[in-house]
């Protein structure tokens, strides 16, 4: 888990994808139609997301875990992001992830975040 988010932060798409199960599903919580990134992503969608983040935050986005709870094959993770957008706007969001693992690979991620902040920074600009 830690390595996945480190690779995500670094924009290392092949390295991050190598830690995911082939049938991984990443669900970003949000009402349908509320934000373009709400809904489910497969491996290709995750790779696309990493490209969007890398383009929008050229010097990288730091993801800092602030709390972990693990039980069985599930990990609950609190995290904070920080990055400077190409236009100088600061992206600093708070997250909760619920991640499921199987045989050392991530099989699912459920992401909860401040969707208003995402909209304000990435969409409204």
TrEMBL record:
<dbReference type="Pfam" id="PF12680">
    <property type="entry name" value="SnoaL_2"/>
</dbReference>
<dbReference type="InterPro" id="IPR032710">
    <property type="entry name" value="NTF2-like_dom_sf"/>
</dbReference>
<protein>
    <submittedName>
        <fullName>Nuclear transport factor 2 family protein</fullName>
    </submittedName>
</protein>
<dbReference type="InterPro" id="IPR037401">
    <property type="entry name" value="SnoaL-like"/>
</dbReference>
<feature type="domain" description="SnoaL-like">
    <location>
        <begin position="2"/>
        <end position="108"/>
    </location>
</feature>
């Amino acid at each position: 888990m830690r390595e996945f988010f480190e690779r995500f932060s670094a924009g290392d798409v092949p390295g991050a994808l190598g830690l995911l199960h082939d049938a991984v599903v990443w669900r970003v919580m949000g009402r349908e139609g509320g934000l373009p990134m709400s809904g489910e992503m497969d491996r290709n969608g995750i790779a696309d997301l990493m490209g969007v983040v890398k383009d929008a935050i050229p010097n990288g986005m730091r993801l800092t875990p602030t709390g972990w709870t693990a039980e069985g094959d599930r990990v609950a993770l609190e995290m904070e992001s920080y990055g400077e957008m190409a236009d100088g706007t600061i992206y600093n969001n708070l997250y909760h992830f619920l991640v499921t693992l199987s045989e050392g690979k991530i099989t699912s991620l459920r992401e909860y975040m401040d969707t208003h902040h995402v909209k304000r920074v990435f969409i409204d600009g």
